[in-house]
Amino acid sequence: MQFAKQSLSIAAACVIAVGAGHFVQNKDMYLGTTRATAAPLQPVVAVTDTFVNTIQPLSATTDDAPTSLVRLGEMPSLPTISMDLTARVNSDHDRLTLPASANPAINEYGLPCEAKLTLTPETGGLVAVSLIASCLIDSPVTLQHDKLVFSARTDHIGRLDVTIPAMDGEATVTAVLDTGDTLSAMTSVPDATDYDRIALQWVGDQAMGLHAFEFGAAFGDTGHVWAENPRSASAHSGGFLTRLGTGIGPAAQFAEVYSFPKAQEHLNGVVRMSVEVAVTERTCGAQASAEILQPGANGNSQATDIVLDLPGCDAVGEFLVLKNIVRDLKLAAN
Predict the structure, then answer these.
(1) Residue 164: helix, strand or coil by DSSP?
(2) Which residues have C-beta within 8 Å of that of residue 330, sequence separation ≥ 6?
(3) What letter would DSSP give residue 334?
């Protein structure tokens, strides 16, 4: 143990001695003094592939700066913009935008024009209609299914989505575009025959509506199905109303379809049907016309025309209720 301590002391002493000797030989460098015999420091030149820069001592004056450097005050000034930036952008846009008529196969978003109609069956005997007409933006479309006809309109990207009640198990839908072109598609709707459907359709600004009073319901009751209480195909009991058609003016076509599930016909009772016509400032004193679509004796949809003279404008705000033009649904339990 004593030998180990002594060896360690000798080794440490040797290290200290070597370090001290190095310091004595180089103390002038560490302390910042210069021997008389020391060679003066030379400037260092750095050479690269692209530039040659002389690295000057820190004490170099501004006059000694390399001539390749550009003083801030000598920087060339940027050219001033003589035209307002917004005006230049708009000018370029007008100059670069391809006119729609230059290539009718491309719409304003640069997408190829296409027109496609697809049908998808849904529960409740319904059909989801999807129309894509990428070059017909906010454009009127007439949709026809069986004897049912109504107006629709594409949106800001030329798309139209609407759900209609299938009047037949093999549903065919035709779309007449504003260009006069016609698209048709067909799909099977297996549960379409599970419903009795009654439709009212009309043209123009006539304020009409289809009403169903289920099992003795009075106006405003839960069993009163109309535009203000349409219900849906997912309702657990009773029928539902679908309103179709968009647009205004004398050429716009509208329809309302009441659907009642045959699976509930085991119930005893009657669904009383009626048509209501409002007298408005646009229709007073005029003639109103509409069409009723309802199941015939053979089960197929039959059409019945309605034509009536509305009272004068002193009756604005009143309603005409037509109760005998639509057959009631009489249900009897087996």
Answers:
(1) strand
(2) 270
(3) -
